[in-house]
């Protein structure tokens, strides 16, 4: 049986930090489902369909990841329900800094209360990618800054189109 992990997030937009977590996750799991949240609690720059396209372009066109190892979906449910649907026992989460830990710790605890058979696995991106966040990338591009060091070529293009 294939080991599958769910990697939920907003990916608004995807960054090299997210991609680093996916790369590391693929060393542990046979398949990673990148689950793009449609939650109404956030104000997204890109609609979920746009984010799916951006993530697919980043992973499959820019970086040539194998499509057989990664599935990209959108979801509007509890992550634990998504795990049940895809028969996954693991939620994959990325950590950048200590400031992420408190929120992620609470989230992992709540998910465990919702379904005690599901574990949360935290992976840290490499040190050079820990400063990258979707929020900062959007701020930099909004003011005309260069974001090539932080995300893929097709993602840079999508962001530039959004801010033109």
Structure commentary:
By secondary structure, the chain is an alpha/beta fold. It has a single domain, classed as HUPs (Rossmann fold). Helix content is 43%, strand content 19%. It is built from 6 helices and 5 strands, in the order E-H-E-H-E-H-E-H-E-H-H. It has helices spanning 16-26, 48-62, 79-85, 98-114, 134-142, 153-163, and strands at 4-9, 31-37, 70-75, 90-95, 119-124. It has a 5-stranded parallel β-sheet. The radius of gyration is 15 Å and the shape is globular.
Short key terms for the protein model shown above:
164 residues; alpha/beta; Rossmann fold; 5-stranded parallel β-sheet; 6 helices; 5 strands; 43% helix; 19% strand
Radius of gyration: 15 Å
Estimated helix fraction: 40-55%
Which runs of at least 5 residues are low in confidence (pLDDT < 50)? Answer: none
Strand content: 15-25%
Question: How many separate domains make up the residues?
Answer: 1
Which structural class is indicated by helix and strand composition? alpha/beta
Strand order of the largest sheet: 3-2-1-4-5
CATH superfamily name?
A: HUPs
C-alpha geometry? globular
Total strands: 5
| H and E order | EHEHEHEHEHH
Q: What name is given to the CATH topology?
A: Rossmann fold
Enumerate how many helices there are, as a single number. 6
Strand count, sense and barrel status of the largest sheet are: 5 strands, parallel
CATH architecture descriptor: 3-Layer(aba) Sandwich
What is the CATH C level class, in words? Alpha Beta
């Amino acid at each position: 049986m294939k080991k599958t992990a769910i990697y939920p997030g907003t990916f608004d937009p995807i960054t090299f930090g997210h991609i680093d977590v996916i790369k590391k996750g693929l060393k542990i799991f046979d398949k990673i489902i990148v689950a793009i949240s449609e939650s109404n609690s956030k104000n997204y720059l890109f609609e979920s369909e746009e984010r799916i396209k951006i993530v697919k372009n980043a992973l499959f066109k820019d970086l040539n990841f194998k499509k057989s190892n990664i599935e990209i979906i959108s979801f509007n449910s509890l992550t634990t329900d998504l795990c049940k649907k895809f028969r996954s026992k693991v939620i994959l989460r990325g950590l950048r800094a200590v400031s992420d830990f408190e929120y992620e710790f609470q989230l992992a605890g709540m998910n465990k209360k919702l379904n005690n058979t599901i574990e949360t696995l935290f992976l840290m991106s490499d040190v050079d990618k820990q400063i990258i966040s979707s929020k900062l990338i959007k701020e930099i591009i909004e003011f005309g800054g260069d974001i090539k060091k932080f995300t893929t070529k097709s993602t840079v293009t999508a962001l530039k189109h959004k801010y033109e």
